[in-house]
Design brief:
Blueprint (H helix, E strand, L loop, with lengths): L1 H22 L5 E6 L4 E8 L20 E4 L9 E8 L4 E8 L5 E7 L4 E6 L1
Parallel strand pairs: 1-6
Antiparallel strand pairs: 1-3, 2-4, 4-5, 6-7
């Protein structure tokens, strides 16, 4: 009887630990600007919404060659996010459906030949 009780307690402890890990999903990431331009604004919003949240840079800007650590202040289970950047010339670029639970770094580049921005996810 004691053996089954201990197995039950161990299973509950493992289950509780798994729930804690899931609840603390890390969406924090580093945004790297390799565009040759200054980024004035950065917006990150859950993919499931149609509205952008506040500019995560606030009053700051992200110069070429600089990076910014984007931190989420609350633990949630949302992993899929959209990202929008606005350059200092007011050009906007968006990327959608980014799994921030998997990605730790997003590097944005601008291709002078094609005139397009791209992002790599690490």
């Amino acid at each position: 009887m004691k053996k089954w009780f201990l197995v039950g307690i161990t299973a509950m402890a493992i289950s509780a630990a798994s729930s804690v890990v899931l609840a603390e999903a890390k969406q924090d990431f580093t945004l790297v600007n390799k565009t040759g331009y200054t980024i004035d604004e950065v917006y990150v919003s859950p993919h499931s919404t149609n509205d952008w949240l506040d500019d995560v840079l606030g009053q700051d800007v992200l110069g070429d060659g600089e990076n910014a650590k984007i931190k989420f202040h609350s633990a949630n289970e949302i992993c899929k996010y959209d990202l929008k950047v606005i350059y200092d010339d007011k050009e906007e670029v968006e990327w959608t459906d980014i799994d921030l639970c998997e990605e730790e770094k997003i590097t944005i580049r601008w291709n002078k030949k094609s005139g397009e921005s791209s992002a790599t996810f690490d």
